[in-house]
Design brief:
Shape: globular
Order of helices and strands: EHHEEHEHEHEH
Number of helices: 6
Largest sheet: 6 strands, parallel
Helix content: 25-40%
Radius of gyration: 14 Å
Strand order of the largest sheet: 3-2-1-4-5-6
Structural class: alpha/beta
Strand content: 25-35%
Number of strands: 6
Length: about 160
């Protein structure tokens, strides 16, 4: 089974107001899982929300340096909460024969959740990476874990 790992909106401009300790913890899980999946030739996709980007604030829209980005990773830009909406994401996944999507990143209650739903609507099998999502509201993370399919990092090597 081919897996895609989504790293959503891990950009400085969006992470303002999120506790640095929470960001560091999520980055540790995200980097571990992306390393495991890369080593097994699965797809790593960095999704960047570029709504509001201009020449003067471009740097804030780059993926934060705490996230490992490799040359063969894909980068998809979006301007709405659902990364499938008006992007080439679905076509990329179909071209790579992806069946399962592991989602991580910011914000659990918006972009992660909307992209999760977009994946399910398109027939992919989405799961949320436990300890790999962020929000400015801790109760949202608890609700996301309760209401969506969840995967913990030790399971990833067995699936890969």
């Amino acid at each position: 089974m081919k897996i895609a790992f989504f790293i959503i909106d891990m950009q400085a401009i969006h992470l303002q107001g999120v506790d640095k300790k929470s960001i560091d913890r999520a980055c540790e899980y995200i980097n571990h899982v992306s390393g495991v999946l890369r080593s097994k030739d699965h797809l790593i996709v960095h999704i960047q929300d570029v709504e509001g980007m201009s020449e003067t604030n471009r740097d804030g829209y780059q993926t934060i340096s705490d996230i490992d980005v490799k040359d063969r990773d894909l980068i998809v830009t979006k301007e709405s909460s659902n990364a499938f909406w008006q992007t080439e994401l679905e076509q990329l996944l179909v071209q790579h024969n992806v069946e399962m999507i592991v989602l991580s990143g910011f914000a659990a209650e918006q972009c992660v959740l909307f992209t999760y739903n977009g994946a399910a609507e398109r027939g992919f099998r989405p799961v949320i990476l436990q300890n790999g999502i962020l929000s400015t509201h801790s109760d949202v993370i608890t609700a996301t874990y309760r209401d969506r399919n969840l995967i913990s990092y030790p399971v990833i090597p067995f699936l890969a």
